[in-house]
Amino acid sequence: MAKLHSGKGDHLDRTKENTRQQILTEAVVESICDLSPTVKSLNLRVNNEDFSFKAGQWVDFFIPGLDDQFTGFSMTSAPGQLEHDGILDLAVKCNEEAPAHWVHHKCQVGSKVGMRVGGDFNFDPQDGDQSKDLLLIAGGVGINPLYSIVQHVVDLHRLSLQGGETAYKPGRTVLLYSARDEGELLFREQILRLCQEVPDISLQCFVTQQQDFKTPSQFPRPRGITKLLTTVDV
Questions:
Q1: What are the tens digits of pLDDT across the range 58-104?
Q2: How far is residue 102 from each of residues 10, 134, 174, measured CA to CA in Å?
Q3: 143-162 and 188-197 are packed helices; what angle lies between their axes, rounded to 10 degrees?
Q4: Which end of the chain has the lower number of beta carbons within 10 A, N or C?
Q5: Please, are residues 122 and 74 in contact by the beta-carbon 8 Å criterion?
Q6: CB within 8 A of 147, min separation 6: which ones?
Q7: For residue 95, what are the contacts with CB-CB under 8 A and spacing of at least 6?
Q8: What is the model's pTM?
């Protein structure tokens, strides 16, 4: 059997101590779109009722013809979308790793891929748990797992309005998000809409390499925080 290995940064080595599901599941690409000049979104249909994930987790992502090479991509959708619609979303930044290169240059609607869920960083509160406040900090495509968490917080908020006394009630969620320029602030408009629905969710964006803005007031550059966020990628 060929030795399994991953791409840049060696995803397998970096995550070898992390929890991994045993299930390797096939998924079909339903749609592809550009989120930015460097990032594509994949909408994937999963026909396996045993496949599940928690907000914040990632998948080992296997592409056709290269079963011995894979890398990890974090889900950008909430677990509820998979549960109700059988669909999950990934966002993939362009680079020279085989899986990312395939997504940007060869992937098409109808393509089949393999996925295996892993990761110990997640947000999965249960009914009866005490409410928790969340501070989420993302740089660049590090927004991916945190966008999944924010959507899950919204789903939990909706359920809490319908549930009884034991339903989990989310606390306050603050998301600080930095990118190189406005065009790389993925999901900003979608997150702002979620903030309008749930006032206890707030978003503040920062950019590090852009000087001119259509709406300068939306991009404060406080000294210290901007410097911090230029190095964060979670």
A1: 999 999 887 667 889 999 999 999 999 999 999 999 988 889 999 99
A2: 17, 35, 34
A3: 20
A4: N
A5: no
A6: 76, 186, 187, 190, 191
A7: 8, 101
A8: 0.85
